[in-house]
């Protein structure tokens, strides 16, 4: 029997992050969205909470207490504050988690210590490609072996913080199998394009990345000769995105619920109307259901189980829930829901992106 009662440390972590989200993220997220820029002090403070260093092996400066369940609890609380800031805080995970899961001892020793420092390292990963019916398991970016290394060619999109990254983890197809390669910034043929203009998460800089005969040494292939289990890494990403989607959905539901209690029409709060009450009840059920699917998948990952089925089912359900919940929040606010003064329109725009965010978050 599964028991998702939070232990003392998890409860303390959730309350700490919830307080940080309310007192720091919620106070700046609208300005960050309008300005299209990250508030660096808030991102730094989010890093200092220590979600990633807590899970790093002790040999590399961490605490060696990795838990997927604890991580999804933390990510949900962060995303309740703001999605763009959450994705920025989680950006170092895009390289650290694959290194922990699949890196060779030499790669781990070289790179992991930098993730235990006081400052978040300038790293990012590139998975998504600019084409219709994009499938993360069938990449068009290629890696061809030769001359003691690999040559990478292709185009990536939605690469977070690429303009300031010093190290990229780039996913490419090698003989039909997805592999990952550590590529330092400035490598010949690696070009960061213009910043992409997207529907939501405006505060998070996202870029296209072009690879034109980018040469990397063989030792930069993540996992060495064994390579990576891409399905496992994709599951880690989908857990992070699932937890973030629950956080956004919960934010929309809670805001709409409180608004409905306070908005008075015809002498009574609109929450008393059956149509609104039923809508709020459906939202609450969906958020709780989505959370349980995320937690169950995370628990099974902690047990060492293959969660490909669970992660796929969870991601499909949560993507729908976050979009439906945000849309209903807009409906409950009526005309106010469409005004930028209220956060629900932002949450709706952000919710629409979850179907396209594979690979830009990881736990």
Low-confidence stretches: none
Shape: globular
| Major beta sheet summary | 4 strands, antiparallel
SSE order in H/E notation? HHHHHHHEEEEEEEHEEHHH
Distance between termini?
A: 25 Å
Give, in spatial order, the strands making up the sheet with the most strands: 2-3-7-6
Count of individual domains: 3
Number of helices: 11
What is CATH's topology name of the largest domain? Butyryl-CoA Dehydrogenase, subunit A, domain 3
Instruction: Give the CATH level 1 class of the largest domain.
Output: Mainly Alpha
Range of helix content: 40-55%
What's the layout of helices and strands?
Elements: H1 8-35, H2 40-48, H3 51-55, H4 68-81, H5 83-90, H6 93-102, H7 105-111, E1 123-126, E2 142-146, E3 149-160, E4 167-174, E5 177-184, E6 190-195, E7 206-217, H8 230-262, E8 264-265, E9 268-269, H9 274-302, H10 308-333, H11 344-352
Parallel strand pairs: 1-4
Antiparallel strand pairs: 2-3, 3-7, 4-5, 6-7, 8-9
Helix pairs in contact: 1-4, 2-5, 4-5, 4-8, 4-9, 6-8, 8-9, 8-10, 8-11, 9-10, 10-11
What does this protein look like?
It is built from eleven helices and nine strands. By secondary structure, the protein is an alpha+beta fold. The protein has a four-stranded antiparallel β-sheet with strand order 2-3-7-6, with no helix packed on it. Strands 1-4-5 form a three-stranded mixed β-sheet, with helices on one face. A hairpin with a 2-residue loop joins strand 2 and strand 3. The radius of gyration is 21 Å and the shape is globular. The model has no long low-confidence stretch (mean pLDDT 96).
